[in-house]
Design brief:
The protein is α/β, with parallel strands linked by helices and 235 residues long. It has 8 helices and 11 strands. Helix 5 runs parallel beside helix 7.
Length: 235
C-alpha cells in the first residue's frame, strides 16, 4: 500500500451529482463504496467535506449578508454533508465517526486530535465537519490543517476533473494536464489547486496533494495504491 493514512477532501458540490443543489443519494452511495474499498485494504481514512451544495458563506456575503454569519451557516452545511456521508458509509458496514470544529454534541463528537487518531488506528473513518470552526477560512484550509494534525501521508482532493491543467479543461479543450508539478510551479503559473492559505500551509509542511477525478470508479483505490492517477503536487 503506497499510502497508509489519507485525508480525502471532497467539495460539497460533488455530493449534488446531477442535481442543482442538495445531496444526491446515489452519488453519496458511490462515494461510500469507493471509501470502503480502501478501508478494506487497511488504509486509514479521514475526510473533510465542503458545504457549497447547501450554502456558501462568501456567496451570502456578496449579497449583503454578514460574512461571519454566512460562514457559520456554511460550517453547519458541512456538518449536514458529514452526517449524510456517515450514514452512507455505515450502510456499507464502515465504522464512522463525525467530529466537528463547532460544538454540536447531540449529533457529533467535538474535534479532539488524540481521539481522532485513536479512531483511525482502530480502522474507523473519521469525517471532520465544521471547517476550522473559524470564519474566513475555507474547507480547503480545514483539510490541510486536519491532515497535518493527524499526520496524514497525503491530501487527496477528489474533484470532477482528472487533475491539474494549464487552463480550465471544461472551457479550453487545448488545455494540457500535468502528471506531476511542484508547489513552486503551481504558484508561478498561477494555477488554482486550493485557496492560497491552504496551499501555503501544505507547502510549508511538505504535505503532497493529489488532485484526481473522484467520480470515476476505483480511482480512489488506484491513487492509494500509487498508480499514476490525476496530478501530484509535491516539492
Amino acid at each position: 500500500m503506497h499510502y497508509k493514512r489519507i485525508l480525502l477532501k471532497l467539495s460539497g458540490e460533488a455530493l449534488m451529482g446531477n442535481r442543482k443543489y442538495g445531496i444526491d443519494p446515489e452519488r453519496l452511495s458511490d462515494y461510500a463504496q469507493e471509501i470502503k474499498r480502501v478501508v478494506d485494504q487497511g488504509v486509514e481514512v479521514a475526510i473533510v467535506i465542503g458545504g457549497g451544495n447547501i450554502f456558501r458563506g462568501i456567496a451570502g456575503a456578496s449579497k449583503g449578508m454578514d460574512r461571519v454569519q454566512g460562514d457559520h451557516m456554511g460550517m453547519l452545511a458541512t456538518v449536514i454533508n458529514s452526517l449524510a456521508l456517515q450514514s452512507a458509509c455505515e450502510n456499507e458496514g464502515i465504522q464512522t465517526r463525525v467530529q466537528t470544529a463547532i460544538d454540536i454534541d447531540e449529533v457529533a463528537e467535538p474535534f479532539i486530535r488524540r481521539k481522532a487518531l485513536r479512531h483511525l488506528e482502530k480502522g474507523r473513518v473519521v469525517i471532520f465537519g465544521g471547517g476550522t470552526g473559524n470564519p474566513y477560512f475555507t474547507t480547503d484550509s480545514a483539510a490541510v490543517l486536519r491532515a497535518i494534525e493527524i499526520q496524514a501521508d497525503v491530501i487527496l482532493k477528489g474533484t470532477r476533473v482528472d487533475g491539474i491543467y494549464t487552463d480550465d479543461p471544461e472551457r479550453n479543450q487545448e488545455a494540457t494536464k500535468f502528471d506531476f508539478i511542484s508547489f513552486d510551479d503551481v504558484l508561478q503559473k498561477g494555477l488554482k489547486v486550493m485557496d492560497t492559505t491552504a496551499f501555503t500551509l501544505s507547502h510549508e509542511n511538505e504535505l503532497p496533494i493529489i488532485v484526481f477525478d473522484m467520480n470515476k470508479k476505483d480511482n480512489l483505490q488506484k491513487v492509494v495504491l500509487g498508480e499514476q492517477i490525476g496530478t501530484k503536487v509535491n516539492l
